[in-house]
């Protein structure tokens, strides 16, 4: 399909969103001889949302007839409750991996190249029903008891605060147990090409503030991009790869800061990296670390 014309501000936004998707490992460059056109849709807040016109692909796709609940019925279900919590899963569709071998079908064509999705993009005809099927499956025991699901929105409702807190914990436990996008990380095969390694590092880098000592853990992999260095996948690289997959999926979630309490700043340094982390009441708030450059490695560390 041909390219849609874009104004300079749209082209700037396109570059930004493509970089973000590449950095998080959601897309990769595609060599498919076909592709759908990319365009923008303006959101309610005036920002631009990148869309892909999958009309031709959707036309030949076998439709998933899984029923999606009517929102009127959901409102009726909620009418007698007093306490509500609405969870809007962040980029919910992107938590579902595209079936292996089908990635090329999702190729989008832009002025800056063609890209395929490794996760389920918006615009596919079966994306809403696929995600709804997944949500209804994992919450099946609690549907219409204290949970309703509409597309990627989850609503927990109760008559008492005590029940509400109890059921919120159940819902969070289910989300954690299913690890929707985490499973995709755990099953990630060792990269065999530079773009694959860049995609993996882009994804784990997205979570670096949750990982203590990220720069040290990732060093064997990031060192492969150094000039005048042989790009060889050895035992250290494999160990670093497996370790990063593990910590991304198992590290504890950071606590929210309480500005009425005292903060603690802890710092550390080694021969090739520096780092620090912020704590409150023995709970981690944030991590920050980076590798030292060649000049900084000559500094004295005490």
TrEMBL record:
Q: What is this protein called?
A: Retrovirus-related Pol polyprotein from transposon 297
**Highest taxon listed in the record's lineage:** Eukaryota
Under PROSITE patterns, the record lists:
RT_POL
- Species assigned in the record: Vitis vinifera (Grape)
CDD domains from the xrefs? Answer: RT_LTR
Give residue ranges for domain Reverse transcriptase: 1-205
- An example Pfam family from this entry, by short name, is RT_RNaseH_2
**What InterPro entries does the record tag this protein with?**
DNA/RNA_pol_sf, Rev_trsase/Diguanyl_cyclase, RNA-dir_DNA_polymerase, RT_dom, RT_RNaseH_2
């Amino acid at each position: 399909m041909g390219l849609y014309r874009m104004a300079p501000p749209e082209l700037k936004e396109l570059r930004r969103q493509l970089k973000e998707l590449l950095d998080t490992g959601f897309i990769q460059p595609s060599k498919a001889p076909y592709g759908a056109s990319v365009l923008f849709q303006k959101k309610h807040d005036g920002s631009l949302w990148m869309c892909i016109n999958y009309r031709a692909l959707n036309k030949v796709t076998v439709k998933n007839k899984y029923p999606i609940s009517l929102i009127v019925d959901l409102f009726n279900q909620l009418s007698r409750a007093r306490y509500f919590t609405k969870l809007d899963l962040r980029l919910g569709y992107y938590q579902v991996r595209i079936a292996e071998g089908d990635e090329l079908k999702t190729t989008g064509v832009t002025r800056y190249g063609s890209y395929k999705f490794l996760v389920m993009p918006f615009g596919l005809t079966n994306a809403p029903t696929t995600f709804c099927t997944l949500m209804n499956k994992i919450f099946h025991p609690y549907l219409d008891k204290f949970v309703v699901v509409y597309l990627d929105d989850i609503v927990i409702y109760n008559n008492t605060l005590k029940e509400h807190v109890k059921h919120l914990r159940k819902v969070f436990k289910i989300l954690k147990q299913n690890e929707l996008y985490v499973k995709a990380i755990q099953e990630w095969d060792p990269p065999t090409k530079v773009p694959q390694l860049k995609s993996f590092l882009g994804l784990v880098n997205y979570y670096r503030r949750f990982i203590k000592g990220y720069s040290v853990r990732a060093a064997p992999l990031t060192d492969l991009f150094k000039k005048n260095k042989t790009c060889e996948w050895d035992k250290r690289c494999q160990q670093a790869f497996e370790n990063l997959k593990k910590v991304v999926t198992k590290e504890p979630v950071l606590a929210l800061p309480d500005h009425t309490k005292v903060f603690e700043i802890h710092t550390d340094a080694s021969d090739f990296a520096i780092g620090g982390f912020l704590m409150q009441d023995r709970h981690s708030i944030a991590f920050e670390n980076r590798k030292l450059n060649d000049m900084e490695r000559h500094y004295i560390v005490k």
